[in-house]
Amino acid sequence: MKEIQREIVCIVCPTGCRIQVSGDDPQALTITGNECKRGEEYALKEITDPRRTLITTVRLHHAGLRRLPVRTSIEIPKRSIFPCMEVINRTEVEAPVEIGQVIISDILGTGADLIATRSVARV
Amino acid sequence: MDSFDIVVIGGGPAGMAAAVAARQMGIEKILLIERDRELGGILQQCIHNGFGLHHFKEDLTGPEFSERYIKMMGELGILSRLDTMVLSITRNREVVLINSAEGVNTVKAGAVILAMGCRERTRGAINIPGSRPAGIFTAGAAQRLINIEGYMVGERIMMLGTGDIGLIMARRLTLEGSKVIAVLARKPYPGGLMRNVVQCLYDYGIPLLLQHTVVEILGKDRVRGVRVARTDENSLPIPGTEELYECDTLILSVGLIPENELSLSAGVEMDRRTGGPIVNESRETSVPGIFACGNVVHVHDLVDFVVEESEIAGKGAARFVQLPVEKKVTSVALLPGTGLKYVVPQRVNPAKVAERLDLFLRVNRVYGPSCIEVKEGGEVLKKVKRPRMNPGEMERVRIDRNAMETIKGSDLTVEVVEVEG
Questions:
Q1: Chain A residues close to B66, C-beta within 8 Å
Q2: Can you list the pairs that B354-357 forms with residues at least 24 positions away whose Cβ atoms lie under 8 Å?
Q3: Does residue A11 lie in a domain region?
Q4: What is the pTM of this model?
Q5: If interface means Cβ-Cβ distance under 8 Å, which residues of chain B face chain A?
């Protein structure tokens, strides 16, 4: 089996631990350099199934703002980021909007909802 | 003339957190003044996440973080005046403000809290030669255009500077379909947080060119390219290393400057290292009753620390209003020694530290394993170890009350001492 030897900079929090991941067996990798438990989880995931929260905007009508900030409710696979952007770029929303409101549910079958990250009144 | 117990200037996270803290101390008449059309400050355009991990123990986006504070402001019934500019502040705390509905007005404040934040350095601040075409933006201006106004700024982008906003904008522009050719850092290390280098540049394959800078901007009506040179150990361009990169947009993420015109009008003493007012342990400036917090004092990396500092200022202002004037108190200076760019607060009255004193500081270069030492003369008051430090990441040193009690009355020095592995 191919030996894994990688340094990963943790992005869970701003501390930015440099985490060493090594070993032959992907089921039993050695993880060092992380200051907290979340770093270990992140490093493992980064090797096996890298995911990110996608954050962007959608077009907004009848509001003082022209764009509504949105995010995915959970992290999505990195490879789904650009396909999701294509869907999001075709989306338009009308005010009023409540923070947390679902704009697109289960975007591209990722299991993540695209949600509003602020409230906007209708004008 | 209307009068208020506390007038807060600026409705970003610093101003809101200070106002909320003052109200929780029982201050009734608070007025917060904001020049934009809504509260929230710069966080409203910082749509990315990473806010609130310390303060709310949650990973929030900028708008989510600010909406929490806007809600608290509403629940606590704190009065705010939007679309209103403060023109000046006097030493005896008269605040002159202007808006289109009421014209010019003066209000009297028991205490003033300065929370105006900071502004971006522009091309003029870094003197890049060349012509003056369209297509040169600061990272924050590009962020506002894209995230709030809904306009794209360009297609082929060169980014100069590696501040956090710049890194985040490199990702944002890529997501919206622009090509970010490269991000240039004049120094041998990036200015922003490492996690942003990873998730904004590495994730999207955007090249990070360390020790490179723009030496000329080309183009007549619109930017058509930039000349990029390598830099030497003093961060100066090396002649003969220039290369031409074609691009239609240059984005600058070259630092932030505390916005202190109003502080100066009030006669507040400034620290040239931070670019902000000199403050003490309760964030009071050299002018009694005028407090300051957030990026107007020093530029922070994290809003969580801004909020923490602003709560100190809010409580300090509340105590100033509530307690009778005390006789002159003696304070000592905190001086940045070897290895330090600055330390905040710059003054402390040891007797007034309730439980602990948090020092916020930045080092002046990258350090390996080192200690930060707080000393009075030869005596070490506090010593903390760090595996690694860099100027882009603010450090915090906590001094307990016990240690504070040992202070004899001389100025304190804070310095970095390198240690073996």
A1: 118
A2: B354/B401, B355/B400, B355/B401, B356/B398, B356/B399, B356/B400, B356/B401, B356/B404, B357/B281, B357/B398, B357/B399, B357/B404
A3: yes
A4: 0.91
A5: 37, 44, 47-50, 53, 59, 61, 63-64, 66-67, 146-150, 172, 175-176, 193-195, 197-199, 203, 301-302, 393
B60 forms bridges with which residues in the sheet?
A: B51
Instruction: Let me know: does B298 contact B276? Beta carbons within 8 Å.
Output: yes
- Name the superfamily (CATH) of residues B1-120+256-326: FAD/NAD(P)-binding domain (3.50.50.60)
pLDDT in tens, B74-121: 999 999 999 999 999 999 999 999 999 999 999 999 999 999 999 999
User: Is A61 an 8 Å CB contact of chain B?
Assistant: no
Based on its alpha-carbon atoms, the radius of gyration of chain B, rounded to whole angstroms, reads 22
- The residue type of A80 is S
Q: What is the pLDDT of residues B307-327, one digit of tens each?
A: 999 999 999 999 999 987 665
Which of these, B295, B297, B277, lies nearest to B287 by C-alpha position?
B277
Q: Which of A37-51, B93-107, B222-236, B268-282 has the lowest mean pLDDT?
A: A37-51
Q: Are B286 and B263 within 8 A, CB to CB?
A: no
